[in-house]
Recover the amino acids of this structure.
């Protein structure tokens, strides 16, 4: 089975972290986001993956020089310019020579959605496309998808106003697509699968959906980038993972509470890290506080400084001793 993973977005909501690293190469506890996505596909029977790349594509190639990720073979399709979600699927599928039904997934979704049962349902209904749905509290950030009781899709409304969403079931970003769909996507220009392709399939009654109660999170925002990692160390998704890397240096008089401390990072005596992500090589100096925030790779939080309220401190940025950073991104210009 073949799959296309969309990984070419700019990751703007995760700046400044995505200034240096494309979103799907950002680490999630102990490995890049993309590896979780590939693992989910592998469990569903996928053996060949094409990465639909654009922004900072070289960093993907560098990470997988032998073009294998988690035992799945990778190929790379690099768009000359961003073609949006459908344009990217077409470009990548053409590059990979796909001429049979295939999977396409958003590269920033961590999920245990059962890809095999999506595939089975696709065969049963004879749909043009079958998409997985997940239930969320606030559907306005997502593609909202009302269905009939059998799962035939009745509408696809991308990011409606909250009071205009007809249901809490939303597009989970995992699709089985017939190859005929590719011919309907204009080549060489931006085409959105959510705003153009799916609505036109709905009009033809060719779009079906499968509801999933499995773990699901889109980690494209600061709050979900933190939440997904806390879920992994809390054991919300499978067995609890260790939050503190083997070679991280946490002083015995530091307090690390429900946080991820990545390779080579250090937390000094008297410092507190709570509900936070301390990335590779970051240093939290004495008596500093990091609460509900992300400290980027190689960043330094000075003595007694406080970083709170979903702040993001960018790569190698220093926060001076005693400063307060609350609910901010630094540098803010990124
Ligand atoms: N190759 C390529 N080219 N990839 C792209 C492009 C592009 O032009 N634009 C976006 N992507 C990739 C992103 O990197 C990401 O992996 C995926 O496509 C989805 O883009 P996001 O920017 O993360 O979209 P979203 O989260 O706002 O909304 C999408 O995902 C939701 C579920 O997580 C939509 O598909 C919604 O309908 C859906 O509910
Ligand atoms: Mg997203």
């Amino acid at each position: 089975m073949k799959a296309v993973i969309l990984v070419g977005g700019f990751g703007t909501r995760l700046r400044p972290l995505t200034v240096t690293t494309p979103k799907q190469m950002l680490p999630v506890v102990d490995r890049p986001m993309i590896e979780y996505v590939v693992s989910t596909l592998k469990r569903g029977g996928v053996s060949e993956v094409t990465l639909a790349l654009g922004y900072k594509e070289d960093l993907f190639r560098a990470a997988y020089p032998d073009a294998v990720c988690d035992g799945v073979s990778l190929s790379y399709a690099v768009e000359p310019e961003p073609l949006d979600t459908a344009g990217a699927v077409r470009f990548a599928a053409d590059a990979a020579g796909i001429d049979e039904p295939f999977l396409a997934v958003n590269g920033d979704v961590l999920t245990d959605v059962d890809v095999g049962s999506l595939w089975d349902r696709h065969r049963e209904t004879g749909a043009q496309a079958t998409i997985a749905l997940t239930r969320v509290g606030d559907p306005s950030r997502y593609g909202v998808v009302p269905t009939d009781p059998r799962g035939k899709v009745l509408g696809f409304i991308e990011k409606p106003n909250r009071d205009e969403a007809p249901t809490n079931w939303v597009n989970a970003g995992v699709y089985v697509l017939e190859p005929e769909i590719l011919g309907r996507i204009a080549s060489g220009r931006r085409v959105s699968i959510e705003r153009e392709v799916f609505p036109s399939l709905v009009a033809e009654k060719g779009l079906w959906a499968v509801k999933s109660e499995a773990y699901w999170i889109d980690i494209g925002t600061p709050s979900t980038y933190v939440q997904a990692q806390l879920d992994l160390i809390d054991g919300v998704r499978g067995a609890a993972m260790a939050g503190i890397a083997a070679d991280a240096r946490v002083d015995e008089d530091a307090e690390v509470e429900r946080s991820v401390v990545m390779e080579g990072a250090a937390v000094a005596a008297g410092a507190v890290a709570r509900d936070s992500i301390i990335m590779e090589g970051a240093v939290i100096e004495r008596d500093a506080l990091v609460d509900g925030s992300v400290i980027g790779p190689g960043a330094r939080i000075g003595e007694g400084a406080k970083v709170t309220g979903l702040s993001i401190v960018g790569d190698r940025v220093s926060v001076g001793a005693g400063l307060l950073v609350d609910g901010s991104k630094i540098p803010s210009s990124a």
About this structure: Residues 106, 108, 218, 220 surround magnesium ion (ligand 2) (CB under 6 Å). The two ends are 39 Å apart (CA to CA). Residues 101 and 178 are 4 Å apart (CA to CA). The mean pLDDT is 96.
